[in-house]
């Protein structure tokens, strides 16, 4: 075992994470941490990765050939505290025989929950309503003021019907939509059956859905899947919700679609870049709800993500099976 030797393997952690995770790592590894506010600056990462055996990183850290070259031959495991891995240059990492780990499953519920919250906040205009109440816009109860589309009898389209997409559908079902449609690489008969979802083409989903919720991974195939054309195909009453990655949307096209009322509203937990610049046009739109990438930000979930990331690193350094290895 690695830690029974004289030298403990060195691990670099790119952010101050939970104590449980660090305690576990400290038992068998020599741990160094970027403990500054926010993400590790690139030059710090490049400097500190040298000779490390393990890297505990976040979705805010771009792990590419440059980082891997600086790391050198010792690097055995890159474990990201996220389910998304579009920040990892998978090809370069695999070429060097370095293992990868991520945190699927444990964040599914939290992320699905947030997607539902965001969908409702967007369709029922919660933030706008709160603002009106604060600034004196609330003069009297009014019959059609601050109305938005309800889920009852609607068509809900899920793009990316994997773990998270399926859980979003399950949580939306009690709201009584008429039907669920999904667009996914592969058929998911069991999960589809459970909620009564029908697999359709991307175009059909766009044209038929009243609500579109995106939960697919960002890959070369899904990059800017939602472009000008896609928004044009949607209903002008459609509510668009994205909790996956900003990169699946052509953001300028989304701004135009919202400004021109080509679609009704958007709720975004992810965008490009993150954080979104304060003067970005999306912030000026009343029909756009913006959250700062908090999909998995349930307290216990984040703690479990930290712990699992630490366990994955330790397993790899002990040549044991990595709990949630990213194999692609
Ligand atoms: C992920 O894990 O990829 C989410 O975006 C953050 O939890």
Automatic annotation (TrEMBL):
Residues 116-295 form the D-isomer specific 2-hydroxyacid dehydrogenase NAD-binding domain. The keyword Oxidoreductase applies. It holds the Pfam family 2-Hacid_dh_C. Gene3D superfamilies: NAD(P)-binding Rossmann-like Domain. GO terms for molecular function: oxidoreductase activity. This is Glyoxylate reductase/hydroxypyruvate reductase. Keywords: Oxidoreductase. It comes from the Eukaryota. The keyword Chloroplast does not apply. Residues 11-325 form the D-isomer specific 2-hydroxyacid dehydrogenase catalytic domain. Belongs to the D-isomer specific 2-hydroxyacid dehydrogenase family. InterPro entries: D-isomer_2-hydroxyacid_DH, D-isomer_2_OHA_DH_cat_dom, D-isomer_DH_CS, D-isomer_DH_CS1, D-isomer_DH_NAD-bd, NAD(P)-bd_dom_sf. SUPFAM superfamilies: Formate/glycerate dehydrogenase catalytic domain-like (SSF52283), NAD(P)-binding Rossmann-fold domains (SSF51735).
